[in-house]
Design goal:
Layout lengths: L3 H55 L4 H8 L1 H4 L5 E5 L5 E4 L12 H7 L4 E7 L2 E14 L2 E11 L1 H51 L14 H49 L5 H33 L7 E3 L1 H18 L3 E6 L6 E3 L1 H17 L6 E9 L2 E8 L29 H11 L3 E7 L3 E9 L5
Parallel strand pairs: 7-9
Antiparallel strand pairs: 1-2, 1-5, 3-4, 4-5, 6-8, 9-10, 10-12, 11-12
Helix pairs in contact: 1-5, 5-6, 6-7, 7-10, 8-9, 9-10
Length: 463
């Protein structure tokens, strides 16, 4: 498996080498063009001077007479090879004795015969290096009578260019080596923190959620480190909540079981009156009901967690559900000396929903309201319809929920700090049911003033 570090270094080096090679080619080509241009300008200045000299002082004689009598004048102006060519393209004088040339190598001569400066670069038989030829017309009384041609070898120029190119190549090699070293350092600056994050993640995968990923830079890897640390903190919190939940459930299960076992032993040993028997059986029945309720709540929670809850939708009369809950909880309100007010609008529309789950939500929340409201307090259950939603308000004048607990009150396993808090799954189940019905459950509360739960459910048509 290729490491990220190796791939990063290879990619960096590839980009660096491509960049350096491109720059080398550009710089060497630029130097070559400049050297060739300087040589061309020097030859042009020399040949133009010679052509002007011919026009001013020798144009009265014919080209052949000037070659015979004044030929030294032309090659004194330059160190280059000098040729004089007639209008037919024939060499009538060459400073080194060349008498002819290939027609394909006289494009500069043709331009000069047409009155323009000509340039040609190529190979000749008498030199192993390339040569540069500059041609210029010779004029007599504004008529072209021949061509003056300067030819020079590019040996020294090419040698200078090669020296400069070798310097550039060595510099390029140094740049590549330094860049390679820097790219390794840069790759390490990425891979180092990434390895630490990976190590921390591996420890967390083995169950060590107390380990922390050290954040070095405020970048994407730093953000990953923060996310990993946040995840471990949340897992630790949830593990603690689970532990507390199991402890709480164990305690709540133990209490009714202790009562049932105690009365069973008592009745087994005998009883003095039928009244004691009735009391014992009554307690056993009530504690059994408590156990059944807790077990059903745990089963519901398990189904919600595994996503196996399915709503049994049917046509539901919301008024019937409200009236049923009123009849069920009114005796408790009287017993606890709490004012229980139930109100709803006339002509509430029917909806397609799960009536039993609706009752479960309302009874669970109202049960909490009664639990946390003292004698002489008030619990209100109010229902409104604002198209297309039902809005259910459950208010109490109880002890309220502390501000720091309010954001977490619907979390699974979360149990409040008050002594009346139960196992921490009732509200989470209610929230899950409301979400399944495409609704929302909102809780507002102030300490020592009371709590208000707002449930919003959309009107559901038959599917």
């Amino acid at each position: 498996m290729k490491s990220i570090k190796k791939r990063l270094v290879i990619y960096f080096m590839f980009i660096i080498i491509i960049t350096v090679v491109t720059l080398e080619i550009f710089l060497i080509n630029t130097v070559k063009q400049n050297y060739y241009k300087n040589l061309e300008d020097n030859l042009y200045n020399q040949i133009k001077m010679s052509s002007d000299l011919y026009y001013q002082y020798f144009s009265d004689a014919t080209l052949y007479e000037n070659v015979l009598n004044n030929v030294d004048t032309f090659w004194r102006q330059t160190t280059a090879q000098v040729q004089i060519i007639d209008l037919g393209g024939n060499i009538i004088m060459d400073s080194i004795g060349v008498t002819s040339f290939d027609d394909t190598k006289m494009e500069d001569v043709n331009k000069a015969l047409n009155g323009q400066k000509g340039k040609w670069i190529g190979k000749v038989d008498y030199d192993s290096e390339q040569v540069m030829a500059i041609s210029y017309p010779l004029k007599s009384r504004d008529n072209i009578v021949g061509v003056l041609r300067f030819i020079t070898s590019l040996r020294e120029v090419n040698s200078d260019i090669k020296e400069i190119a070798s310097v550039f190549l060595w510099l390029g090699l140094v740049v590549v080596l330094i860049s390679g070293f820097v790219s390794i350092l840069f790759a390490n600056s990425i891979i180092g923190p990434l390895k630490e994050v990976t190590t921390a993640a591996e420890k967390m995968a083995l169950g060590d959620f107390k380990t922390k990923s050290m954040k070095k830079y405020d970048d994407e890897i730093g953000k990953l480190s923060d996310t990993l640390n946040y995840m471990s903190d949340e897992i630790l919190k949830r593990e603690q909540l689970k532990t507390d939940f199991i402890s709480s459930v164990s305690h709540e299960l133990r209490t009714p079981l202790t009562s049932i076992k105690g009365w069973a032993i008592t009745l087994k040993q005998g009883y003095e009156t039928k009244e004691i028997l009735a009391d014992g059986l009554d307690i056993i029945e009530k504690e059994s009901d408590r156990l059944t309720f807790m077990v059903e709540e745990l089963l519901d929670f398990s189904k919600f967690v595994s996503g196996k809850i399915i709503l049994e939708r049917e046509l539901v009369n919301v008024v019937d559900i409200i009236e049923h809950i009123k009849k069920q909880l009114t005796p408790r309100a009287i017993r606890d000396q709490i004012d229980f007010h139930v109100s709803y609008e006339d002509n509430l529309p029917k909806t397609y929903s799960d009536g039993n789950r609706l009752k479960q939500v309302f009874i669970n929340i109202l049960d909490n309201a009664f639990n946390f409201t003292l004698s002489g307090g008030e619990v209100i259950f109010e229902t409104k319809y604002e198209y297309p939603n039902y809005i259910f308000y459950i208010k109490d004048t109880g002890c309220g929920i502390p501000k720091e607990e309010l954001p977490r009150i619907k979390e699974k396993f979360y149990k409040g700090k008050t002594s009346k808090s139960k196992n921490g799954i009732g509200l989470s189940i209610c929230d899950e049911i409301v979400n399944l019905m495409n609704g929302s459950l909102e809780i507002k509360s102030q300490c020592n003033k009371g709590t208000e739960v707002i449930i919003t459910l959309p009107l559901q048509e038959r599917e």
